[in-house]
Prior knowledge:
Structural class: alpha+beta
Pfam family, one: DUF1523
Number of strands: 5
Helix content: 40-55%
Keywords: Membrane, Transmembrane, Transmembrane helix
CATH class of the domain at 25-147: Mainly Beta
Order of helices and strands: HEEEHEEH
Mean pLDDT: 86
Oligomer: single chain
Distance between the termini: 40 Å
Low-confidence stretches: none
Transmembrane segments: 147-166
Number of helices: 3
Protein name: DUF1523 domain-containing protein
Strand order of the largest sheet: 3-2-1-4-5
Radius of gyration: 28 Å
CATH architecture of the domain at 25-147: Beta Barrel
Largest sheet: 5 strands, antiparallel
Amino acid sequence: MKYVKWTLIVLFWTLVAGFLHYTLPQHDVVRITDTYETRVNPGENRWFWTQADTGDDPLAARDVFFIQTRRANDSIMVYRNEDTGWGWPPYFKFDTSNLQAEAADLKSTSDNPKWAVIRHYGWRNEFISIYPNAVSIRPVDGPDVTIIPWMNIILLSALVALFWALRVRWRRFWSSRVDPVLESAGDRLDEGGDRIKGLFNRSK
């Protein structure tokens, strides 16, 4: 039973960590090599694409913007560029076309590179064809720029504080309300057991 408990605890926190890692913003310093638009038809991986507009078929093919990049270590990263609208995650992004124009303006070659910071969320997985969604782009002087994820620090600090506050209140509630009830029930069971033993002894 102990192993089952710890397995469930580890599984729960793994899911929480995965959810936060997918949802919270991340920053990549990249060189944009190309931008394009292509038609996609979300299938089994539709959970990793932005929901279709209201009234549209969520599985129907639609045109999506993409941004091709290279990182400072020369690795390739491809981003999709879709509006999040009022849905989840709550980035309230409505400027897909403007963002694509900004990305196209920052295209460069390895001989004369232009570096940019792409703020995004999500994961890149070639096996199931999912892409992180670009949220914003801004030019920077070089690939060695320092980025401090203030939003992530604030949000994670707030979540830790909320979890700690809930844990403290739960422990207080348990010790003041639940433990006395359990102790009282245990005492009554002990008294009942003693009475049964006494009756059994008398019957002998």
